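Predict the 3D structure for this chain.
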Amino acid sequence: MGIDISRPDSGFYFRIFIGLFVAVIAALLALFIKPTKVDPRFVLGSGALFVAIANFIITSELIPKTGAMALADMVNNLGLILILVTLIESTISLYLYDKKGEKKLSWVLDRVSIVLLVVIYIIINVAMVISAW
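Done. Predicted structure below.
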């Protein structure tokens, strides 16, 4: 005998992760800021990191405790990693721009990183949700 379990819609998914998605977008938007504008560029990323951690804590309260990693854990971890990568990329971009004088290379790194990170984030997120459905 089996029980068929299904999810009627993805509303709950978006409702619990909207804070994380906004934080990820904010971290990505920081890559559009000139690398020498250190305050806004790094404040966006570090603020996004705090929001993502808060979202992680809130979502972990909503889901029963198990020994296995849940979809919510994986989505939150992915968001945290992406935000950390944007902070690392910002540091590298600042180094290239300010210390090495490679302004064009810094600009290219920022633009390529934005596209790559968005594509990777969306693909992995969609793949996780599809595999959990």
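The mean pLDDT is 90.
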